[in-house]
Amino acid sequence: MNVLAVDIGNTRIKWGCGGSGGWLRQGWVPTAQPQALAAEFAGLPAPGSIVISCVAGEAVRAAVAAVLPAAATPPLWLVASAAQCGVRSSYADPAALGPDRWAALIAARHMTGTACVVVNAGTTMTVDALGADGVFLGGCIVPGARLMREAMARDTANLALRDGTFSYFPDNTGDALFSGAVNALAGAIGQMARYLGDITGAAPPVILSGGDAGLVEKRLNAQVTVVDNLVLEGLLHIALQSATRSRT
């Protein structure tokens, strides 16, 4: 069965067409141009199912819905739940968890089967703790690197947004801003790994995804696995499991 998975983020809409054998095609368009998906989807095999994560708001959701190809079943707009695909949620209100975070947790559980820290570093960065028993313990959300730098530029008099590179000991303002943002992201991940390690008794691996994954990967004192499109991987797993259950 072909599955069309769509991850509607704040900056990009990523999609993939695949099945139990892996991905056939993948692509992305800017979230500001959802109508461009029509051309992306042209020529794809007819999907048996469509599963979507959306965190970009109702207007973008409606624009994407308008260009979805016909499928054998209605599109599934993912909502996080108390339990799904081997993951159980400890969130106070399970449905309030972002669907992208939920899909990423399911993907990480399917990939590792062990306690891990699940990170999606994009416009914002989410850092979630997953126990060895598949229980999502909780997590945090921090601004992404660009949001941090934009906030500094907006809310201070002398820290305008400017180019910079990472340095252990920055000697100019551009590098100081950039390095501060990267260190803040790495620190949030490191702290969550320490908290989870205190519970499990061992340093947990970090599953890292998102457009800014490359900024923090080398700054982490942990076993790190970088996964392209972790949310799409979770969406595919959800769709395939749903199809299996519907046949039994």
Characterise the protein shown here.
The structure is a single chain. The radius of gyration is 19 Å and the shape is globular. The strands form 2 sheets. A 7-stranded mixed beta sheet has the order 6-7-10-9-8-11-12, with helices on both faces. Strands 3-2-1-4-5 form a 5-stranded mixed beta sheet, covered by helices on one side. It starts with a strand and ends with a helix. A hairpin with a 2-residue loop joins strand 8 and strand 9 (124-130). It is an alpha/beta fold and 248 residues long. 37% of the residues are buried. Helix 4 (145-155) packs across helix 5. It is built from 7 helices and 12 strands.
Chart the SSEs and their pairings.
Layout: E1 3-8, E2 12-19, E3 22-30, H1 37-41, E4 49-54, H2 58-65, E5 76-77, E6 83-84, E7 87-89, H3 99-112, E8 116-121, E9 124-130, E10 135-143, H4 145-155, H5 173-200, E11 206-209, H6 213-216, E12 224-226, H7 230-247
Parallel strand pairs: 1-4, 4-5, 7-10, 8-11, 11-12
Antiparallel strand pairs: 1-2, 2-3, 6-7, 8-9, 9-10
